[in-house]
Structure formats: structure tokens, C-alpha cells
């Protein structure tokens, strides 16, 4: 770990105030002088603030699932100091057809996360009105809504409570190594830091370029969510319903409203994402093909960015080509549900410590920034 002289502003500069940067800052502040900078006027304006906000163990590839599963006890404990419960149990119904496919990665889902098989009669009890093509399914009991705003606010508060600083409206313009530190030019002045953490989400490759560090081919993808009112009540606690994470999901939101996504992944440049009408129409069409509840109105619609590396794994670790430059990016839609464990993994690497017991079975090599990129 590089320690900078007292004349420097901070030991660790984290670029990005979304959940990745905020949670890592919460782990590091107190033991290091930490500053989090955010280009927007509000932390979490993009991916964090637009998340569909659920925790589901079956999402992603095996290394990412292990981070998710390791994160759940930390959510249950209210880390990093939330007075609001962070998870609300909902459950997931994975729909299957005549072939009875199983959930990808089911081998990782053991113990409380183990899948429960459902026949058509059991499906009808849980989600009445499903179309005839669904002959069975799997129930994933531990899926839960995440209180994202409370979690993000608690992480930012933990940074400040431990003496760290959070600066908004502070765009990183350029950075270059200067001895054992980085000299960073921002919209609000120069910052010197011993370590620079790139947690800039969809903008992470752009931040790397501004620092003279080769990018890792991150690709932002637009994802659409539509809130619709339907001709049926009692839907607030409806499980998350998906066709094995293939072409749609929907979940209850209000008594007569549901959130629906067509699981679109449209490559875009980093931007303030907005929904396209074709994606809204696709979401509604897939919902209507799945279930016979009449759609009465579109109440809300929005889009967010999910940023993937080429191998679709999170990129967490030191850049082998740029000393003192650390990646915390490429979360690909799993950033919130993996943040407690991912931040613990990153903090251990930054401090040069062995991984704690909470991360047993997790291999940092799976998330090396240039492995598989």
C-alpha cells in the first residue's frame, strides 16, 4: 500500500459516487484518508439510482454469484450502519416450458438458496393467470427487494462519519503519476492521492483514458423498466417472475401495478439513459404473452446503464500496467447486490491483507481487470 506524505490531500481517491465507490469508501475511510469524487451534482444518479433493486442469488456467472451470496449476511446485518432493513423477502419464480429447463448455475444455489421445483398447479397458486406454455418452474426463496436508497445513503454516511470526504460536481479531467502518487486535475481543483480507484461505472474506460491508463473494453448496455397498471389487485407482494432470466421479468410494485423489463441489453455510449418506445412496447408485449392480466396504463418508464467487460465478470483489482491504479468496475447489473462483498474484497487487496472469512471460496483472480478483457 502506497502511503503519501502529509502534504497530500488524501491517501485514496475514489472516482465515482455510486454504490461501488460509496461502499468501497465505507470500507477504507477511517484507516486511510479517503476522498470520493462524483461528476454529477448527486451521487448515484445513473445506474445506482435506477436499479430495479432486487437481490437474487441466481443472477450472473458463478464468480459473481459467489459475491452475491457472500453479500447477503452483510445486508441482513444492515452493513454499513443502516437503521432501515436493507432486504425485503420476495422470492423468484423461474418459469419453464415443456422441456423443464433448470436455472443456470443451480449448482451454486444450496442451503437456504436451493431451488424448489414447481408443477403447473403450484405455479397457478403463486402466479394465477399464466399462459399455457408454462408447464412448471423453479422457486428461488431468498430473492429480496433491496432498499437501495437506504443502502447507498448509509455507505456515503459511513465515509463521512469516519473522516472521509465526498465531493459532488467534481469531474476528473486528467491525472498523471507523480512519483509515488497521482496528481489529479478536477473541475474543482487539483487532488494528490497515493492510490486512484476507478469506480466510475459506465464512464470507467473514459476515466482510465484521462489517466493515461489503457481501457479494458467496458461496454455500457441500456436496460428498460416499465411500471404498468393492470386489471388485477393484490400484486404488491407478487414474486419476481422470469423465464430463466432469458427475455423478461416482472414483479409486483403496488396493489395493481407491476414492474416489467424485456431484459434488453442495447450497447450505448455512456449517457443519461432514456427508454426507447420500442423497448417499452417489447416489455408490454412479452408481459402479455406470459400472463393474461389486462394492461390498463403505463404509469412510469425509465432506463439505466449496466456496464459489462467482454467476459461479463466484475473487474476488481490493481491494473497490472499502471501502478497505483485500481479498478472497481464492470458490475454488469450486479453492482448493488454484490457491493458488500465486492467492497470487502477490494479493501483487502488495497490494504494488502488476506481475504477475511466472509469471502471464503472467492478467488480474486476471477476479477482481475485485464483477465478475459
Count of alpha and pi helical runs: 7
Distance between the termini: 25 Å
**Roughly what percent helix?**
10-25%
Unreliable stretches: 1-7
Radius of gyration: 21 Å
Q: State the order of secondary-structure elements, H for helix, E for strand.
A: EHEEHEEEHEEHEEEEHEEEEEHEEEH
Descriptive notes:
The chain is α+β, with helices and mostly antiparallel strands. 23% of the residues lie in helices and 29% in strands. Strands 5, 6, 7, 13, 14, 15, 16, 17 and 18 form a 9-stranded mixed beta sheet that branches. Strands 1, 2, 9, 10, 11, 12, 19 and 20 form an 8-stranded mixed beta sheet that branches.
Provide a compact summary of the structure.
With 373 residues, this protein is of the alpha+beta class. The protein has helices spanning 19-28, 62-76, 120-126, 148-161, 204-210, 277-290, 335-351, and strands at residues 10-15, 34-37, 54-55, 87-89, 92-96, 116-119, 136-140, 144-146, 165-167, 172-178, 181-186, 189-198, 219-230, 240-242, 249-252, 257-261, 266-267, 295-308, 315-318, 325-329.
Amino acid at each position: 500500500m502506497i502511503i503519501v506524505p502529509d502534504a497530500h490531500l488524501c491517501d485514496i481517491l475514489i472516482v465515482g459516487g455510486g454504490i461501488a465507490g460509496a461502499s468501497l469508501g465505507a470500507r477504507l475511510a477511517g484507516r486511510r484518508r479517503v476522498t470520493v469524487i462524483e461528476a454529477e451534482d448527486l451521487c448515484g444518479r445513473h445506474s445506482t439510482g435506477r436499479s430495479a433493486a432486487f437481490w437474487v442469488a441466481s443472477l450472473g456467472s458463478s464468480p459473481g454469484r459467489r459475491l452475491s451470496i457472500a453479500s447477503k449476511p452483510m445486508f441482513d446485518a444492515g452493513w454499513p450502519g443502516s437503521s432501515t432493513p436493507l432486504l425485503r423477502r420476495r422470492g423468484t419464480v423461474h418459469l419453464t416450458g415443456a422441456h423443464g429447463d433448470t436455472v443456470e448455475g443451480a449448482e451454486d444455489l444450496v442451503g437456504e438458496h436451493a431451488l424448489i421445483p414447481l408443477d403447473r398447479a403450484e405455479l397457478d397458486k403463486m402466479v394465477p393467470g399464466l399462459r399455457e406454455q408454462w408447464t412448471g418452474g423453479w422457486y428461488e426463496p431468498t430473492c429480496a427487494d433491496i432498499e437501495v436508497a437506504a443502502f447507498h445513503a448509509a455507505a456515503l454516511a459511513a465515509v463521512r462519519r469516519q473522516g472521509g470526504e465526498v465531493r459532488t460536481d467534481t469531474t476528473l479531467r486528467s491525472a498523471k503519476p507523480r512519483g509515488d502518487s497521482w496528481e489529479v486535475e478536477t473541475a474543482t481543483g487539483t487532488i494528490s492521492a497515493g492510490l486512484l480507484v476507478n469506480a466510475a461505472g459506465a464512464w470507467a474506460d473514459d476515466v482510465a483514458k484521462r489517466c493515461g491508463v489503457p481501457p479494458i473494453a467496458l461496454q455500457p448496455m441500456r436496460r428498460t423498466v416499465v411500471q404498468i397498471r393492470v386489471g388485477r389487485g393484490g400484486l404488491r407482494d407478487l414474486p419476481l417472475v422470469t423465464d430463466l432470466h432469458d427475455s423478461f421479468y416482472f414483479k409486483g410494485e403496488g396493489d395493481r401495478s407491476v414492474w416489467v423489463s424485456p431484459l434488453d441489453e442495447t450497447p450505448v455510449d455512456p449517457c443519461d439513459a432514456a427508454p426507447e418506445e420500442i423497448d417499452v412496447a417489447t416489455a408490454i408485449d412479452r408481459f402479455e404473452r406470459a400472463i393474461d392480466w389486462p394492461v390498463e396504463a403505463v404509469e412510469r418508464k425509465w432506463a439505466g446503464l449496466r456496464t459489462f467487460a467482454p467476459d461479463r465478470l466484475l473487474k476488481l483489482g490493481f491494473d497490472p500496467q499502471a501502478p497505483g491504479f485500481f479498478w472497481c468496475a464492470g458490475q454488469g447489473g450486479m453492482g448493488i447486490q454484490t457491493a458488500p462483498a465486492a467492497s470487502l474484497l477490494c479493501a483487502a487487496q488495497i490494504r494488502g491483507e488476506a481475504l477475511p472469512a466472509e469471502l471464503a471460496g472467492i478467488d480474486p483472480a476471477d476479477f482481475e481487470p485485464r483477465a478475459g478483457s
